[in-house]
Amino acid sequence: QVQLVESGGGSVQPGGSLRLSCSASGIGLNYYTIGWFRQAPGKDREGLTCISSIDSSTWTRDSVKGRFTISTGNNGDTVFLQMDTLQPEDAGVYFCAVKIRPVLPLFRLCGPPYGMDHWGKGTLVAVSS
Questions:
Q1: What stretches of 54-112 show up as alpha helix (H) in DSSP?
Q2: Model pLDDT for residues 72-128, shown as the tens digit of each residue
């Protein structure tokens, strides 16, 4: 009964910022890896940044380092994605995803083949003048 619900998407101008939220439920007492992915129109889904519940370590895709930051809420049931200096190529559907009781390292879950086992439905981000 794991559920992930993204929110915070919208339309911004190039150079603008957005803060996405992912509300997670049903994770329980398990260790987990959770992160953000996106799929631009006509392109493959790609992992952006993920965080481990074990030690709060993170992995971030090179193309968004310095612009995108993942963080978690106080009680661990919410994860955020702060996106700054957004560009048109950042447009797409942003997904929150989680792996319960992860075995693979953080970067392998956040990158191909994306071993997450629960996904939200996504929130749309548009970047245009």
A1: 106-110
A2: 988 778 999 999 999 999 999 999 999 999 998 898 899 877 889 999 999 999 999
CA dist., res. 114 & res. 58, Å (int) = 15
CB neighbour list of residue 12: distance below 8 Å, 6 or more residues apart: 18, 86, 125, 126, 127
**What is the distance between the alpha carbons of residues 46 and 94, in angstroms, rounded to a whole number?**
10
64-to-59, 89, 112 alpha-carbon distances in Å: 11, 11, 16
Query: What is the average pLDDT value for the chain, to the nearest integer?
Result: 94
Torsion of Cα atoms, 87 then 91 then 96 then 97, to 10°: -100
3-state secondary structure of 121: coil
